[in-house]
Design a protein that fits this description.
By secondary structure, this protein is mostly helical. This is Tetratricopeptide repeat protein. It holds the Pfam family TPR_11. Keywords: Repeat, Signal, TPR repeat.
C-alpha cells in the first residue's frame, strides 16, 4: 500500500513537471511569435512568464536576451545571455550574441573573447568572423581584422558589410587598390550604404583623381548633409583644384556643423 502510494505520488509529480514545462513552452512559443512580428516588449513579457515557470531553459534566456538587444538594452541582454550560457555552455549562437552586445557596449575585449569562443564552437558561421574583425579594428589590429573579413566573405560572399569594413581596414594599411575594389563590391551589393562612396572617394583622391573623388563625396553629402568627413574631404580637393568658391562654401557648411579651421578662416575672408 505504501509502495503504491509512492508510485502514485511520483506519477503526480512528473505529471506536474510535464504540465509546468508544457505551460513554459506555450509562453516561450508566444514570445517567439512576438519576435517574428517585431513585438519585442511583448516577447519579453512572455519570456518572463516562461522563465518564472521553468528557470532552467537556456533558450528562454537566450531569446529574451535577443529581444532586449533589439530594444538596444545590451546590458540586459548580456545578463540573459550569461544565464543561458551557465545552463548550456555549448551553444555558439549565445556566445556570438553576447559578443555582439559587448561590442555595442564598447567592451571590445569581452566581445573578442566571446567571438573567439563562438568560432571555436562553430567555425562555419560568417557573422562571428565579421564582428571579431570589427573588434580587431577597434584594437588597430588591421591585418588581423582583414583576415577575419576574408574568412567572413569566404563563408558569405554577398555580405556587403564585410566588403566595406575590409575596405576600411585596407585603407588603414595602405592597400588602396584593394580598398577601392572592396568599396565597389560593397556598392554593387548595397548602393544605399554611403560608406562605399566615401571610401571610394578617398582612394580616388590618393590616386589624384580629384574630380571623380569629388563626385563620390558629393553623393555622400547629398544623402547625408551632416557628413563632416565627406564635406572636409571635398573641400580639400576643391582647394587642390583651385576652386576657391566651392571650397569656401564647404567650409561654411563645416562651420555650421561646429567645425572650424584657422587656415580656411583666413583663406575665405
Amino acid at each position: 500500500m505504501i509502495k503504491k502510494s509512492i508510485i502514485i505520488l511520483f506519477a503526480l509529480f512528473y505529471q506536474f513537471i510535464f504540465s509546468q514545462n508544457k505551460t513554459a513552452t506555450y509562453y516561450a512559443e508566444k514570445g517567439l511569435e512576438n519576435m517574428k512580428l517585431k513585438q519585442y516588449k511583448e516577447a519579453i513579457k512572455n519570456y518572463d512568464k516562461a522563465i518564472s515557470i521553468n528557470p532552467n531553459s537556456d533558450l528562454a534566456y537566450h531569446h529574451r536576451g535577443a529581444a532586449k538587444a533589439l530594444l538596444k538594452d545590451d546590458k540586459g541582454a548580456v545578463i540573459d545571455y550569461t544565464k543561458s550560457i551557465a545552463i548550456n555552455p555549448n551553444e555558439f549562437l549565445v556566445f556570438y550574441a553576447r559578443g555582439v552586445s559587448f561590442y555595442y557596449l564598447k567592451d571590445f575585449q569581452n566581445a573578442l573573447n566571446d567571438l573567439d569562443k563562438s568560432i571555436s564552437l562553430n567555425p562555419g558561421f560568417a557573422e562571428s568572423y565579421l564582428f571579431r574583425g570589427y573588434c580587431k579594428g577597434e584594437f588597430k589590429k588591421y591585418s588581423e581584422a582583414i583576415s577575419d573579413f576574408d574568412k567572413a566573405l569566404e563563408l558569405d560572399p554577398n555580405n556587403a558589410d564585410g566588403y566595406i569594413n575590409r575596405a576600411i581596414m585596407n585603407i588603414n594599411v595602405g592597400n588602396n587598390i584593394e580598398a577601392r575594389e572592396d568599396a565597389e563590391k560593397s556598392l554593387s551589393l548595397n548602393p544605399k550604404d554611403i560608406r562605399g562612396y566615401n571610401i571610394r572617394g578617398q582612394v580616388k583622391a590618393v590616386f589624384k583623381n580629384y574630380k571623380e573623388a569629388i563626385e563620390d563625396f558629393t553623393i555622400v553629402i547629398n544623402k547625408d548633409p551632416n557628413h563632416i568627413q565627406a564635406i572636409s574631404n571635398r573641400m580639400s580637393l576643391e582647394l587642390e583644384l583651385h576652386d576657391s568658391e566651392s571650397a569656401c562654401k564647404d567650409y561654411l557648411r563645416m562651420k555650421k556643423l561646429g567645425e572650424s579651421n584657422t587656415y580656411m578662416e583666413t583663406y575665405c575672408n
